[in-house]
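1st attempt posting a full record on here, be nice pls
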Amino acid sequence: MNKGWKETLSVRFISIGFTVLALAVFKPFPMGNWQWEPYLHLLAIWMLGVGICLITETVMAYVVRMPQTYDRGVSYIIHRNLWFQLINTPLQTLMICLYRHFVLSQHDEGNRLSWSNFLETLLIIAFCSFAIGLYWRFKYRNRYLKAEIEELQAMNERLAKEQAVAYHDGVSPVVTLTGSTSETVTLQIHELLYIEAVGNYEKVYQWHDNQLRCDMIRCTSRQIEKMLQDYPMIVRCHRAFLVNISQVDRVISTAGSMQLRMRNIHEAIPVSRSNMSQVKESITLEPPLRLE
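the predicted structure (as tokens):
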């Protein structure tokens, strides 16, 4: 059993335990003057509740098509847990009502299956699901926020190290970018900042002679990406941007999005979600990137 499933089971065990505790406090079904029997029934309901959770997990994975994973970030987990609660809450309610009807009704007629019993139990389960959802949402948001801060710090430390070693040896290579017409742009690869796609043209930004320079050539983003495929420090960070990782000063993260702040000009280039993993991998490459 992998770590993700162990954590999921732990969450479900605790959540069902909290729900059973609420049932014991609010007592949605009469138990008469029983002594120790209620504890056995609550234990049985807890075990059945865990089973219902596993059934809901199967529905989530194969029907709703939202598999259990902690690798897609906090937004995915919160969205998935909301769907889980919407499916699991009525199933748990139905299970408890059926248990009352078939097991407990012989002791008290008030436990027989009815709409009033169903709605009463549904109200308690819905309240528990809401409270539990808030708790786990807060917990996972804090965990991912902490992990995001640590990852951001590690990437920025890596970038600082790159700036210290990138230009020590030799002369950086020269690259010539050719457009679909006669225009060309020749530059030293270490001076390239980023390339922006604008319609049928590509804007090539470079830091040359201590000033920003922008050249335009007519070509597609795919064509210019192919021209630079031999340079691993040139990475696609967005459908409209190619960026020179070695010219990135800092990585900025705000509201779940990532931006790359460039050196010298301090302009922030957006990173799309689909390219985020590629950018992170390029920053953390071993051995350190070299431009010479």
